[in-house]
Amino acid sequence: MDARNRTAPVVDTSSCLCRVDRSSAAAAARRISVSKACVEPSLRASIHPLKPKASPRPADRSSGGQWPLLPGLPDDLAIACLIRVPRADHCRLRLVCRRWCRLLAGNYFYGLRRRLGLAEQWLYAVKRDDGQDGRVSWDVLDPSRGAWRALPPVPREYAGADGFGCAVLGGCHLYLVGGADPRRGEGGGAMRRVVFYSARTNRWHRAPDMLRRRQCFGACVMGNRLYVAGGESGSGGGGGLRSAEVFDPAKNRWSFVAEMAAAMVPFVSAVHGGRWYVKGLGAQQEVVSQAYSPETDSWSVVLDGMVTGWRSPSACLGGRIYAADCRDGCRLRAYDEAADAWTICADSKQHQGSSQAAEAAAIVALHGRLCVVRNDMSVVAVDVAAGQGNQQSWETLAGKAHAKSFVTGLLSNLAGRGRAKNRILHCLVLEA
């Protein structure tokens, strides 16, 4: 055949989907005009609507391709499978390969679990061990397994801190705010430092510092913004603070809000009906109750039936506020706005005693139920919507902390640590 008849046809580069190496492209360029040469080796054949997606080859990976998340499946179907893996096994998923690790480290994976209702709520308890020089540690409870698991140490600036605040933003970020600086010794000043833990990345991160140093203050979350108010500066001047500030994670900065009606050191607070209720001690050690409204950015003194006799831990669920009616939290009461009074709503009739170990340290909402967390690390859940006096609605999610073995208990007694107890400082729920 004549050599002129073997000349390559003109190729339209807008529809070219083939792969050409550099030598072939150079040879073709000598026969075809430069404007029509097929020199697009970066285009992938898998984008053609009539061709099946080719499996990655070593050459593809060297040129920017990568292996699929699950062999034989498109990535979208692979992700649909991976998001259904229980949260307890996510630490193992990160060890499979780099692509799985990057997938679980991003917000897309957990955001998809949350939108599809697959996110799991775990209970985190920040506690102080009186038997280890008052060190601060934290444990996590998986409700499906019913056992507490110790977590790596908290940041060292909070390992010995006291009077710090704790809150959850975005459902998966646990913030530690302010507190007494342990590096300044006894009676040291307060901190402005803020750190947060991400349940998605399983890591601690720094956040912008507060505008004021404070300890023993009140903290809450409204509209996914963190509010802090009152407390002490720790400078030794005495008295409480009137200042209040808010942290907006979208802007990543703190800003002042209206000052409190009176300086105070809060000991209990709760968000109810779009307002933040705070109760504590004033400058003259008198009991003061105030409420903050973010809509009007104003504080007001509260004297209604809600704050009367309200000193125990509380939580909101279904638009109502609940609080413990006894020391061990076996009996709960709810606030009735119409009657402006507290009424008994649940009673397990299984009193644990009045010791510090059996004391109800926190009440949190978990999967539509109220959970009472005691200092002995026992957790009971009650379905308040099941009706008053229904004992079947109470369920034990976690028993008391495991008893020490005989040898461990004997050594602890000889060392003078036989009465070591945990004291829960904060208890919150993170979702991932």
Automatic annotation (TrEMBL):
Signal sequence residues: none
Species the sequence originates in: Panicum virgatum
Record's keyword terms, sorted: Kelch repeat, Repeat
All copies of domain F-box, residue ranges: 71-109
Top-rank taxon, per record: Eukaryota
The name this protein goes by in its record: F-box domain-containing protein
InterPro entries: F-box-like_dom_sf, F-box_dom, Kelch-typ_b-propeller, Kelch_1
Taxonomic placement: Eukaryota, Viridiplantae, Streptophyta, Embryophyta, Tracheophyta
SUPFAM superfamilies xrefs: F-box domain, Kelch motif
